[in-house]
Amino acid sequence: MPTLPADLDSGPRRGPAPAAFDVERLRADFPALHQEVHGHPLVYLDNAATTQKPTAVLDVLRHYYERDNANVHRGIHELSRRATEEYEAARRTVAGWIGATDSSELIWTRGTTDGINLVAAAWGVDHVGEGDEILLSILEHHSNLVPWQLLARRTGARIRYLEIDDDGGWILDDLGDLLSSRTRIVALSHVSNALGTINPVQDVVARVREATDAVVLLDGAQGAAHLEVDVNALGVDFYAFSAHKMCGPTGIGGLWGRRELLDEMAPYQGGGEMISLVERDSSTWASVPQKFEAGTPNIAGAIGFGAAVDYLSALPHDQLLAHERELVGYAMERLRSLEGIRIFGPPDPEARSGVVPFTLDAAHPHDISTIVDAKGVAIRAGHHCAQLVMQHYGVPATARASFYFYNTRDDADRLVDALGDVLEIFG
Length: 427
Ligand code: PLP
What we know:
about 425 residues; alpha/beta; globular; disordered N terminus; binds pyridoxal-5'-phosphate
């Protein structure tokens, strides 16, 4: 690691970390949680969509724009040097979060969606042809479906699907039949955003490796936010994730890829910074990661992502996870007391991340969400960009409460109380 300039050493990113897990103390780090909505203290339970940001991240963004704002990798002046140093230090920090040992394997993207599109376009175009197969699951977010559908349409490849059982788990007995010598890529979610299922990805990767030489991509949008991730231990080839699901800014994410794959892939987009030499008729490419980072990147976003990972890294991860699981178990138990409720996903709270999707017989999810919002409770309603999951259960939408480490039992109680109002209104 290069040494940061002295003024940055004492900057906000290096601020004191909470000594031990104390949810009230942690909540104090998140200004957005301390507001009233429609005359009620906010209960924020839409964390699977995006998380709130701690002061440590907000301060780093402000500090960057106030002191160090410059373009990276090109200026010979002091501000550009500082910006570049912070930007590349953030890459090392974020790479470390997912267990990557070589930070040049981490490409900055706009987020998970962008990372998956990059692989589908840049890798897919040279490795997937007519009659080849792409294996997905019906649990996927549209971000891990539509890019592959576009690729299949362009190439004549065929998409095959791993189905789920009614508890929201993959039907692994089907895997043997779904994998073939034509399988080129297996693209699956680490954790489902629609049901919260923590998927048995390591087992699946092992079985894919035994049966095929397909490449494996994991959609880590929810995984990197809730689990300890080690891309090498998982044995995958690509891992895509988003900063905003884990205390960082929107519009920035990471795509990790195995170096040998990234090296042989053609660039995704052309432009400044991704070239080695440009001539009239052709160009040659910079090495990774710059080869995939055309144009001025989201510099502040990357630095903010680094600050988010610094913030999270200072917390006791095991305790956060245990707290989230305890909360999910508590919320599920309390929700089960409501008349006409149907909770989707794994019955065991240990088998899911912070997501608790449900429907009430009495009211449409959009009405549920509107009424609880009037009580200051923010949840999401809709298909959650997972229409194949909705089709599996035969519902158009669900209401979804999604918990993060800064939520409390009181938040779950406030949700259940507000749902009591829904039942009264629609009685
Ligand atoms: N995949 C999953 C499982 C998600 O939960 C999300 C976001 O909700 C995405 C992909 C897309 O992430 P982004 O919108 O940050 O690109």
